[in-house]
Amino acid sequence: MMTWNITCTYSQFLAQKAPSCCVSLSSFYNDTVVNCPTCTCGCRNKTEPGSCVDPNSPHLASVVSASGKTANTPLVQCTSHMCPIRVHWHVKLNYKEYWRVKITITNFNYRMNYSQWNLVVQHPNLDNITQLFSFNYKSLNPYEGLNDTSMLWGVKFYNDFLSSAGSLGNVQSEILLRKDKSTFTFDRGWAFPRRIYFNGDNCVMPPPDAYPWLPNASSKLVFSSAPAC
Description:
The protein is mainly β. The chain has a single domain, classed as Immunoglobulin-like, CATH 2.60.40. The protein contains 2 helices and 15 strands. The chain has helices at 12-15, 60-67, and strands at 21-27, 30-34, 52-53, 76-77, 85-94, 98-107, 114-115, 118-122, 129-132, 135-140, 149-154, 161-162, 170-178, 195-198, 201-202. The chain has a 6-stranded mixed beta sheet with strand order 2-1-5-6-13-9, with no helix packed on it. A 5-stranded antiparallel beta sheet has the order 10-11-8-14-15, with no helix packed on it.
């Protein structure tokens, strides 16, 4: 007789050939909107015919219904990145002692709804979350003494269900964070996350040299009125 133990581990690379999500960035101090890298999850002109849908098509509803929603392969909106999920991080406001971020998760997949979705974010200032307006969150401490990771998820019966692509295919919230005066800076991409994971999958970030940095002439940023905490 023989006995053995089996440990099952999820592998994003074995589950799908291409990434399943990407991250875009913007800020109040720079007009540049950094989109997801081109062809992150596939190239529009190289994918199989019918694998993406033009959201402005007059026959959109009939194309989606005829495609078969039970299929496992995504049917996404035709975009430059071709990802089913995009997470947008926007640095919204600057206060004297706080700063505010808006996070928007958009579902571009016509074949998939996400119930009880979750987002894991790594950023050095997540140890100072003061208020999160319409998501739940929990700090994660994978390493002792390091508190830079938080899990976010939707509020039950409000936004814990992420609908398939369309006008309702997004959820969003704002986060108010207290500044750590010893380390805080908006310079050199500090205000943007290090990593973002959607439902356990590592989302592709833009290259660091594309981040919307502070203008060279900016020595100080204008403060907004005090936040209502």
